[in-house]
Write a structure and sequence with these properties.
- By secondary structure, the protein is of the alpha/beta class.
- It folds into three domains: 233 residues, 3-Layer(aba) Sandwich (Rossmann fold); 181 residues, Rossmann fold; 73 residues, no CATH class.
- Strands 6-7-8-3-9-10 form a six-stranded mixed β-sheet, with helices on both faces. The protein has a six-stranded mixed β-sheet with strand order 16-19-20-13-21-22, sandwiched between helices.
- Helix 15 links the parallel strand 19 and strand 20.
- Keywords: ATP-binding, Nucleotide-binding, Sugar transport, Transport.
- This is Simple sugar transport system ATP-binding protein.
Length: 531
């Protein structure tokens, strides 16, 4: 099936999310939409899938104009979509989720789940999905849940499959398995629209690449294009994808976590008996798939988790049980994972957001009164130092782009003497240029001698910033390993495999792969398959 988008424009009030976009997806093609978060990729696919009505433009299927009023009409035309956030009901079985909205019935109107089970088994066998139709979705690993979403689309005879940021919640091994599934779907004649901002995966899987920036198509690229070329196309200027940093010069261990346990409202341990240290001048990166206790860990350190046991000490002072204000006053700089919800007050000015944790202290306050001139001067200096793009420090911080909002948070947290710096998902939603800036500031704080803890689900970011890597799985510490640890080993650890076992397994796999390559590769082609 050939899919064409012609002049697709989508406006939300004065915001133009998609601006006259043209796109052609050929049968049996993996067409990647590459662009930063907020570039308009997902909006475009939601228009295609019938979730949004286009303001202008048309959609053609096999040369014929079509109008999709809802996703049901898009699915009936052979278009399926796997959303970034899965649309599954956790307490339903796989078969029940697949049947939902596409029910077949037996006599007396009873649901015919056996027919659905048989379809699931057939598709699972065809593509090697290994999915049990009777398994409860809430018991399945994230990677298998994603396969259920793909099965839902294939059961409805999808010829074009849209995958929206499909690797965002996957381990490296699960990502590799997904890419293999996409290749098989392609061999069967399916067309894939692969939406991503991850250059490694785009280069590995795409037949052609369309780059979108600020709602517009800015060019087509070949998968052979270098990562630097693709990154530059995404942001509109030359950027560096490598972080130059000197080896860490570590000092004494000043931050210690011992037997930390956080219990949720159901009595479950979301952080389970966690212990680790961070030395001065060191970056410890916390790696893991989202939802394995990272958020609760950082919140426990900050003092906002109510049910916490264990010990958290900074320079010998116990922080557990202390208020957020006390923890920040003890010299902890904190960048939360959701800057708009926890890091900023959108209606406050940039100047006001720069002093949210210092508003009652000199030089910004005298007695019960604040000093507006000093506050504005402080903001002006920090806006220049952190390259915050704004017409005025009196502008509401909510009017800034995501990258500039993150710079405001960093400017505030790094503008005072710190004894510990914690940044959770520090570059989420940022363009490549902003990521480059944030990484440099993190390393500068490390080199200043501050213990640094980074929490990130982006493995590339972990490997760039870390001096050591701690991997969490279901709230427990799988292991702490050097930053030189391979992606394969880290991926296995992120799936819960202990460090020593992961190292042995990855080594055995690499040895087997090398032997196979030596037998099957023609002479003179070593390494051509690697990205």
């Amino acid at each position: 099936m050939k899919l064409e988008l012609k002049g697709i424009t989508k406006r939300f009030g004065s915001l133009v999310a998609n601006d006259h976009i043209d796109l052609v997806v050929e049968p049996g093609q993996v067409h990647c939409l590459l662009g930063e978060n907020g570039a308009g990729k997902s909006t475009l696919m939601n228009v295609l899938y019938g979730l949004y009505d286009p303001t202008e433009g048309e959609i053609l299927v096999d040369g014929k104009p079509v109008v999709f009023k809802d996703p049901g009409e898009a699915m009936a035309a052979g278009i399926g979509m796997v959303h970034q956030h899965f649309m599954l009901i956790p307490v339903f079985t796989v078969a029940e989720n697949v049947a939902l909205g596409n029910e077949t019935t037996k006599a007396a109107g009873l649901l015919n789940l056996e027919a659905t089970r048989e379809k699931i088994r057939r598709i699972s066998d065809q593509y090697g999905f290994d999915v049990d139709p009777d398994a409860m979705v809430e018991d399945l690993p994230v990677g298998v849940q994603q396969r259920v979403e793909i099965i839902k689309a294939l059961v409805r005879d999808a010829e074009v499959l849209i995958l929206d940021e499909p690797t965002a919640v996957l381990t490296p091994q699960e990502t590799d398995e997904l890419l293999d599934i996409i290749r098989q779907l392609k061999r069967d004649g399916k067309s894939i629209v692969f939406i991503s901002h991850k250059l490694r995966e785009v280069k590995a899987i795409s037949d052609t690449i369309t780059v979108i920036r600020r709602g517009k198509v800015v060019g087509q690229a070949d998968p052979t294009a270098s990562p630097t070329e693709l990154a530059s196309a995404m942001v509109g200027r030359t950027v560096s994808l490598t972080l130059d940093k000197a080896p860490a010069k570590t000092g004494e261990v000043t931050f210690k976590v011992r037997n930390l346990t956080v219990t949720d409202h159901n009595g479950q341990h979301v952080v389970d008996d966690l212990s680790f240290d961070i030395a001065k001048g060191e970056v410890l990166a916390i790696a893991g798939v989202q939802g394995n206790g990272q958020t609760e860990l950082t919140e426990a350190i900050l003092g906002v988790q109510p049910h916490v046991a264990g010990s958290i000490t900074l320079d010998g002072e116990e922080l557990l049980g202390k208020s957020v204000k006390h923890v920040l006053g003890a010299g902890v700089g904190f960048v939360p994972e959701d800057r708009t919800l926890d890091g900023l007050v959108g209606t406050f000015t940039i100047s006001e957001n720069m002093i949210l944790d210092l508003y009652d202290k000199a030089p910004f306050a005298r007695g019960v009164g604040m000093k507006p001139g000093v506050i504005a001067d402080n903001a002006a200096r920090k806006v220049e130092e952190f390259d915050v793009r704004t017409p005025s420090v009196s502008a509401a911080v909510g009017t800034l782009s995501g990258g500039n909002q993150q710079k405001v948070v960093l400017a505030r947290e790094l503008s005072r003497p710190l004894r510990l710096f914690i940044a959770s998902q520090p570059t989420r939603g940022l363009d490549v240029g902003s990521i480059e800036f944030v990484h440099k500031r993190v390393i500068a704080e490390r080199d200043h001698g501050t213990p640094v803890m980074i929490v990130s689900t982006e493995l590339d970011e972990v490997l760039q910033l870390a001096d050591r890597i701690a991997v969490l799985y279901r709230g427990r510490l799988v292991g702490i390993v050097p930053a030189t640890t391979s992606r394969d080993v880290l991926g296995l650890m992120m799936a819960g495999v202990p460090a020593a076992e992961a190292e042995a397994s990855a080594s055995a796999h690499a040895s087997g792969a090398t032997t196979t390559a030596a037998v099957s590769e023609p002479a003179g082609h070593e390494g051509e398959s690697h990205v």
